[in-house]
Amino acid sequence: MKKIFSLTILSAFVVVFSFGKLSAQVTIGADVAPQSFSVLELMGQYETGVFGGLRLPQLTTTQRDAITNLSAPEAKGLTIFNTTTNCMEYWNGTEWKSLCDGSGGGTPSGDPLSTWNGQECGAYVAPGVWKRFMCRNLGANPYADPFTPSDAINGEYYQWGANTPCASLTAIYGTWSSTPPTTYYGNNTSGEYVTVKSGADPCPSGYRVPSYNEWEGVFAYNAKTNVGTFTPGNESGCKFGDNLFLPAAGFRVSSDGTLSDRGKYGYYWSTRLFNETYAYYALFSSSGGGTYYGSRAGRSIRCIAE
């Protein structure tokens, strides 16, 4: 039966698409006439009690970006399913657009990296200076609620200066190295306070690792609210103002990569270097927060808009 059906589909496509001047209309999946406005209709039930849908090409972002000749006017409307983002995407003639409708709670309006349910994520970094942040840590589930503590928004861990993560919540990537990367964030000077994005910065286009001063501003100019129970292993974090939530993701110890302090402390890299072995990070717990320096171990990254 399935072989016969496959031949039927193939034949229908040949009839519809092989002859440029043929104006035939076709229904696949049921013995009914198509609507007057349809060239091709696919019915979900093609055998009694058996249902199915249209399966689009399954491409990763890298594979999608390898598609050529998208500058052709006829390329508009090209549609795929992106297995990297788990979203349908279409080419509008200029860029790929996502069709994600926020079924996980998100919203397609604004920048999807920094918007949730119509709410833009961000915080004050100086008096009267409000900056957009990505709603989630790098490596977090892009569809999870960024304001509710869960392992889905924990994200990955980065050694300071590296543009790729060293570990996830559950695993170390490859062989752990206690030697800090030779690359860096910011401008690689010990007194770095300016907002510079280095070539090794892992944040996506339009974002960068926050500076030391920006993290200082987050702690100084936003009301801090504890969410969850701050004990090891629990899901918890801090909300700064109304629009920025940071999970207490802990960190990966520099010597062997052991996960430590998750559920109790949050550690987030800044662009400021202390020396070849240490760098500055934002640290918070249930009792407070501030900026400190420590080993360039695996810590979280929350990107800020450039």
Number of strands: 24
Number of helices: 3
What sort of overall outline do the alpha carbons produce when their principal axes are compared? Answer: elongated
- Kindly report the spatial arrangement of strands forming the biggest sheet: 5-6-7-8
Radius of gyration: 25 Å
Strand content: 25-35%
Given helix and strand content, the structural type is: mainly beta
* Helical content band: 10-25%
- Biggest β-sheet, characterized? 4 strands, mixed
Q: Quote the distance from N terminus to C terminus.
A: 57 Å
Question: What is the topology?
Answer:
Elements: H1 2-17, E1 26-28, E2 40-42, E3 45-47, E4 50-51, E5 58-59, H2 61-65, E6 79-82, E7 87-91, E8 96-98, E9 115-116, E10 119-120, E11 122-126, E12 129-132, E13 158-159, E14 207-208, H3 212-221, E15 224-228, E16 236-240, E17 244-247, E18 251-252, E19 259-260, E20 266-273, E21 278-285, E22 288-295, E23 298-299, E24 304-305
Parallel strand pairs: 1-2, 5-6
Antiparallel strand pairs: 3-4, 6-7, 7-8, 9-10, 11-12, 13-23, 14-24, 15-16, 16-17, 18-19, 20-21, 21-22
